[in-house]
Amino acid sequence: QEALTCGLGIVSAQEIDEINILNASFLAMHRALDKLSLQPELLLIDGNRFNPYRGINHICVVGGDAKYQSIAAASILAKTTRDLMMEQYDAQYPVYHWQKNKGYPTREHKQAIADYGTTPLHRMTFNMAIQLKLDI
Q1: Closest by CA position to 73, among listed 13, 32, 20, 21
Q2: What kind and span of H or E run contains 60?
Q3: Residue 53 in 3-state DSSP?
């Protein structure tokens, strides 16, 4: 309610596969920053690394979501957006139960992959050998 501006950055599974999860996280943050209507003076980054963005100073803060309200708010925005996307994916591919598992490789999700294969929404570079271990 009190934010001066906010932006969301989305990265596809294919992009994650191409540039790896860490660089995809940086890309998503850059995309979110591209959508801001105001340019920040300083970026507070939750974590220990970041790719600089347009010469704006940044500070990396491990556990930043517990230390700064702005990082916590960004984390909540990211998670609620992810949950909404998972609900949309669930409507598109209901056998994977994304509305329930939010993209985490639960036993039920791993079984669906074993039974039906993957979708364009699945990351192919995720360790599929571990993901497909059904623990039965």
Answers
A1: 32
A2: strand 57-61
A3: strand
